[in-house]
């Protein structure tokens, strides 16, 4: 199996975390970095020993030594960045949310299929060993039938209307930035359509959502989900069945999970990893591409589109 050569679009925080974890990826290497500032790109390249450095993204897309592009720009740039990379014949892993609308997501997956390249939304949570262990417990029937999921994700971010997280021109607000994680974890364990959604939100002066609480009705199961820029939420996920429940601390980056029956702790798992956890999705991308697949079997195009549609349903109730 060949080693994938990665090109990194953007030198921001999430790109640093991803590149830090490439040391734990068996079939991946860092080949190129592109940023708006050449100095930023050079500094980034020096830190991670990346040979090819570019100012602007087009030269990276055209680099014949790059096999796959990791897009780590703000949400509103994802559509154009991904489309440009695909049109250059590159495989793409794009940070979440992959787009800012379901229409854009549908278009990108159609374009990737047309061009015969791989495309996946970087929902790294789906590849974490602790999440896979929790899913195995569910599939083994150890908590019975899932009746409820609780998940939230929030950290306080001071309000500044021109700050990336708050800027409505950059699709600011806690829902797209953080709420996609609770939505994704509920979909991962339930894999059902949402019948109805109840929403309570607090909006900032510029209209961006500071807090969002939404209760999703899946029929036999319900999910209470939340995101926040106002305060740190617990940031745990609870997968609750009629015979037990699973608690997952910091579920979006989980390294452990615990199984309970009533108040008794009956099983525990910790992955003991040294990495941050991004290595698992990067290695999975290499496996998919080696197998000739154009999409992931865990973060499917249908799921990414569904994430967008769910967020659109939530936002419509603000």
UniProtKB/TrEMBL annotation:
InterPro entries referenced in this protein's UniProt entry, alphabetically: Gfo/Idh/MocA-like_OxRdtase_N, Gfo/Idh/MocA_domain, GFO_IDH_MocA-like_dom, NAD(P)-bd_dom_sf
GO function term, MF aspect, one: oxidoreductase activity
One Pfam family this sequence matches: GFO_IDH_MocA_C3
Domain GFO/IDH/MocA-like oxidoreductase as annotated: residue spans: 132-246
Domain Gfo/Idh/MocA-like oxidoreductase N-terminal positions: 4-121
UniProt KW Methyltransferase keyword: no
Matches recorded under Gene3D superfamilies: Dihydrodipicolinate Reductase, domain 2, NAD(P)-binding Rossmann-like Domain
Keyword Signal found: yes
Source superkingdom: Bacteria
Alphabetical keyword list: Oxidoreductase, Signal
Family per record: Belongs to the Gfo/Idh/MocA family.
Annotated protein name in UniProt: Predicted dehydrogenase
Lineage: Bacteria, Pseudomonadati, Pseudomonadota, Gammaproteobacteria, Alteromonadales
């Amino acid at each position: 199996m060949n080693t994938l050569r990665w090109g990194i679009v953007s030198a921001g925080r999430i790109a640093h975390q991803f590149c830090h974890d490439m040391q734990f990826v068996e079939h991946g290497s860092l080949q190129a970095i592109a940023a708006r500032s050449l100095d930023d790109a050079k500094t980034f390249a020096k830190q991670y020993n990346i040979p090819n450095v570019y100012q602007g993204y087009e030269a990276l897309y055209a680099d014949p030594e790059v096999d796959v592009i990791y897009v780590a720009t703000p949400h509103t740039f994802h559509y154009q960045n991904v489309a440009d990379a695909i049109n250059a014949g590159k495989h793409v892993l794009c940070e979440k949310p992959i787009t800012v609308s379901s229409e854009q997501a549908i278009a990108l997956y159609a374009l990737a299929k047309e061009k015969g390249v791989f495309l996946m939304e970087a929902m790294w949570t789906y590849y974490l060993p602790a999440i896979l262990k929790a899913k195995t417990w569910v599939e083994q029937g150890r908590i019975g039938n899932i009746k409820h999921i609780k998940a939230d994700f929030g950290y306080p971010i001071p309000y500044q209307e021109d700050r990336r997280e708050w800027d409505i021109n950059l699709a600011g607000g806690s829902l797209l930035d953080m709420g996609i994680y609770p939505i994704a974890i509920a979909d991962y364990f339930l894999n059902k359509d949402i019948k109805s959604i109840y929403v309570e939100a607090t909006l900032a002066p510029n209209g961006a959502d500071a807090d969002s609480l939404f209760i999703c009705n899946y029929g036999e199961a319900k999910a209470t989900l939340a995101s926040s820029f106002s305060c740190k939420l617990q940031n745990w996920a609870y997968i609750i069945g009629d015979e037990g429940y699973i608690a997952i601390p910091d579920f979006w980056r989980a390294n452990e999970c615990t199984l309970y029956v009533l108040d008794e702790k009956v099983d525990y798992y910790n992955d003991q990893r040294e990495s941050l956890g991004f290595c698992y999705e990067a290695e999975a991308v290499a496996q998919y591409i080696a197998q000739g697949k154009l999409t992931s079997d865990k973060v499917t195009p249908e799921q990414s589109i569904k994430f967008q549609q769910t967020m659109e349903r939530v936002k419509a109730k603000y």
